[in-house]
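Continuing the batch. This is chain 6 of the set; chains 1 through 5 are on the previous pages. Same settings as before, nothing changed between runs. Recording input and output for traceability.
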Amino acid sequence: MTTILYMRTSTRGQTIEHQLTQARQAGFTIDEVVADAGESGVATKLEERPQGRRLFDMLRAGDTLVVRWVDRLGRNYRDVSAVLDALMRKGVVVRTVIQNMVFDGSITDPMQQAVRDALMRFMAALSQAQAEATKDAQRAGIEHVRKGEDARRRYRGRKPSYDRAKYQSVRDMLELQLGPSEIARSTGLTVQTILRIRDDPGACEAALTAWGL
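Output for chain 6:
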């Protein structure tokens, strides 16, 4: 029985190494890694990604598939739900790094199946909502930058103390429910900066864009 980590990066700030480190820190022992880089989770089905079809071919009954979050498995609610159903029918256990969710097709009790399926659908819907909210924030940041282009030529505001990679690291650690003080120690940023990224990601995206970071 093999434990496979599937990773996908969709922004400049995300890296394959970062997601692998997160999985190991969460206690997973990984036997093999399958990774797609630069594939948009809200635009491309898993089976259409370069390594997505290979992943399906590799997995066998009794294997465990580890993903950072269920959004790695599809572009929207329907895709994620369909992939989870297909994997569980195949006998694969799916586990997430964030919040350690477990989706196991070996459950036979109907009540437990109902709870599992309800949770699975909720997580899939939440993933789509989060992806859409992130894109809305990015669009808002870009629009903010566009509208203020003339003003930016005169004054772009204070340069961020973080680049895009560090910004994404903070967002990832916030998703893992780490506290601002812990994140500050890990990244070297101030607690105030962590709180600013947490509370107003759209403005932070705009600042990064304005400074070309």
